[in-house]
Design a protein that fits this description.
The structure is a homodimer. The first copy, chain A, contains eleven helices and 20 strands. By secondary structure, the first copy, chain A, is an alpha/beta fold.
Chain lengths: 402, 402
């Protein structure tokens, strides 16, 4: 007998038919003798509908406290409907809101962090052999005000419960049946992974293969919660995410593309001490996330510094650099949004020096030019023209995974 | 400076335009220096939409606990939207759910009773000069489960806050501008009352002039909370409901009709001791509310007993009587739903013996036959054919109120 935490997203509970599908998945595991805690997001379009109502009242944006009050009604609806379906199918069940399930968070409305889960109520319900349905995405702060956890918050809610309750497994149900070596809609030879490590999952998630929310994977890693990514539509094993995974025949775990990248160049910088510090300190102050950085020697002893940022941050970054023109001498700042980042991820590459050259060779053979390169212990990323993104992923993927 | 509690129903906050109308009413009183606590129901059709979702999952009816979880999301949406509108108009505001506002109830889901309001949070928000928007209709029981108060619960929420906070006035906003001497859509000469006593209001409410929920009037009477019934669409004084009201020139406060009445006759009862006890004890066990009772002598020394019940209870009542056929001897049970009850209400009638005869004369002049009569200290009711209901109300009303 195990304790299993299951998380279902909004599309899995979008209508009565899907709610019963989810109810049946839950009951199947419950009837095997397991304790089951389920985390649910708001139904399909509920959140968008509620945001539209708020925008109608205040197009400039309501206070974050009231947005949290409004949006958290969404999960309240989905948990009660799912509980009703489980009741209808004859199993004992209780739905709990974030605060009832003991989710204590900080006070950063709309992007709150979980501080602690008071598991007393959860344990009581489980001891009564109730299936427990918990509202994801929400909690309360120390003033008893409702908070929400931000994008992907329900994944985090599920992992947090699994960690606090020392669950045996935390299953994240999605509309794909696991983690693939590349996007299967784009790469014909992509194949599903049986297992992947937390670090590899984090790198892949960051790279745009958005299967799991990053915060939830970080939390799973921190508390050693075994995750499974699987489909709510097909009954078959998904991909297990855990600390140490068995080596596969292939060196890499996956290839992915990220289009949300802009490349910014500061051209003709006069080389004085501290220029890199001044630039990246300023960007940090403006909360711009800098990814790859390349420094090169330009004409006449000047330097060029090129770096990438998420496209949302690009305007902010360019403006910030321009305000430095008093203390820094440079010719111009250029912005290029027609780039993308293609990466391969795999814990195996650390001990195999040939990985990078295999990747570069595959790109060369495909006639794709590399603008920038960045490497970590388990990842190699290249910046290329956006238009070659899909071709690059396929070429690189097939060079490693046959 | 006063503390004013205001309550707005679902139609008053049905869309953005109406929400801003309500926000402006609130701000007007706040800017005069008053402390304002506002109780709101769920928006227009929200409750019906949520009930439809539940019915789709379980047509036979979900558990009451989960219905409360589901339905209480409705006020969560309306309070946050109203708070956003007040923010937009530049005033400080906080929305509070039932549990946040301290509503502790018993555990009778869907028909819970308020046990206590812990006013700490309300007082804190008021001391910060915040307008406070409270979700009506909802609270929590001792297990921290969400409960709802049943039909008209938001009126009760408002009066309960006014009572616990010792508010100076509790204003119930509706789509009519006060309490009338008769239904103004039916009776041309109907006029608005400036004042009415709690007892008169209770009698009128019971009689089908459903302006205020009865429980809320009972609570207002118990805690001596001054109520005002007024329109959210027009800015003019409504009707004040309080303990002692000034006498008006007219003897009666109003005339009203109740169509939800059925008349049941047990014909040819053999007169043995305890027959009335056996009949009405059985009906009480079946939770049938009996209103008017008439006992008359029939043929051959037998008796007839006729009584009225709400139409919803009629089938139950007839079945219950039939189960008594072993211990009671009678010829038959008849049911007549084509009747209605017309009543006049007024504290003044107690000291004016001519009131009943004026009423009966008015009905006689209108050619309307009276089947049954029932009187209390401040009310006279007659049972007549349903088809004469409106004519009877008009005739009786105009006999007293010129």
């Amino acid at each position: 007998m195990s304790l299993i935490v299951k998380k279902f997203g909004g599309s899995s509970v979008a209508n009565a038919e899907r709610i019963f599908n989810v109810a049946n998945i839950i009951i199947e595991d419950y009837k095997k003798g397991n304790d089951v805690v389920v985390v649910v997001s708001a139904q399909g379009d509920t959140t968008d509908d509620l945001i539209a109502k708020a925008k109608e009242i205040n197009p400039a944006g309501a206070s974050k406290r009231e947005m949290d009050m409004l949006l958290s009604a969404g999960e309240q609806i989905s948990i009660s409907l799912l509980a009703m379906a489980i009741e209808k199918l004859g199993c004992p069940v209780t739905s709990l809101l974030g605060w009832q399930a003991g989710f204590n968070t900080d006070s950063h409305h709309t992007i709150a962090r979980i501080k602690k889960i008071n598991t007393e109520r959860l344990k009581t319900e489980i001891s009564k052999k109730n299936i427990v349905i918990v509202a994801g995405f929400q909690g309360i702060n120390k003033y008893d005000d409702i908070t929400t956890l931000g994008r992907g918050g329900s994944d985090t809610s599920a992992v947090a419960i699994a960690a606090s309750m020392k669950a045996d497994l935390c299953q994240i149900y999605t509309d794909v049946d696991g983690v693939y070596t590349a996007d299967p809609r784009k790469v014909k030879n992509a194949r599903k992974l049986d297992q992947i490590s937390y670090d590899e999952m984090l790198e892949l998630a960051t790279l745009g293969a958005q299967v799991l929310n990053n915060r939830s994977v970080e939390m799973a890693k921190k508390y050693n919660v075994e995750l499974e990514v699987l489909s709510s539509l097909e009954r078959k094993p998904g991909t297990i995410v855990k600390e140490t995974v068995k080596m596969e025949k292939t060196l890499i775990r996956g290839a992915a593309k990220d289009n949300n990248v802009a490349s910014i160049s500061i051209v003709g910088l006069q080389d004085t001490p501290g220029i890199a510090f001044k630039i990246f300190n300023k960007l940090a102050q403006e909360k711009v996330n800098v990814d790859i950085i390349l420094q090169s020697v330009g004409r006449d002893g000047t330097k060029d510094i090129t770096f990438t940022v998420p496209q949302d941050d690009a305007e902010t970054a360019v403006s910030a650099i321009k305000t430095l023109s008093d203390s820094l001498k440079f010719n111009k700042v250029t912005l290029d949004e027609s780039v993308c980042k293609v990466s391969i991820v795999g814990a195996g590459m650390e001990s195999h020096p040939g990985v990078a050259s295999t990747m570069f060779e595959a790109l060369y053979d495909a006639g794709i030019n590399i603008h920038m390169i960045s490497t970590s212990e388990i990842k190699i990323s290249v910046l290329i023209d956006e238009k070659y993104g899909d071709a690059a992923v396929a070429a690189v993927h097939d060079a490693f995974i046959k």
